[in-house]
Amino acid sequence: MKIKCPKCDKIAELGDDFSYVKCSNCSLDISYGEYVKLIAYKDARYSDVLGDYTKDTSGTTSGTLDDW
Ligand SMILES: [Zn+2]
After folding, report:
1. 3-state SS, residue 3
2. How many whole angstroms from 59 Cα to the centroid of ligand 1?
3. In this predicted model, what pLDDT tens digit does every residue of 31-48 receive, in sequence order?
């Protein structure tokens, strides 16, 4: 199944049994659980920007995935 890559926004492949997500463009290779977390993480950041972007300076929720 083709899905949108959470890392580079190109086409990634979701395993038929939802066991993995792989993207040949950016070499993404993660489990579906991690993929869901990434989507939630990006949505949360997007909401922060729309709402109160001054919270970003605290960095309490945005750090674990920034080393990508
Ligand atoms: Zn990708």
Report:
1. strand
2. 25
3. 999 999 998 888 887 676
User: Domain boundaries in the chain?
Assistant: 2-54
Q: Whole-model pTM?
A: 0.62
Q: How far is the CA of 41 from the centre of ligand 1 (A)?
A: 16
Please, what is the end-to-end C-alpha distance for the chain in angstroms? Answer: 24
Q: How far is the CA of 61 from the centre of ligand 1 (A)?
A: 23
CA 13 to centroid of ligand 1, rounded, Å: 10
Enclosing H/E stretch for 36: helix 32-50
Q: Which two tokens stand for residue 60?
A: 């309490």
DSSP string, 4-30: E-TTTSSEEEE-TTS--EEETTTTEEE
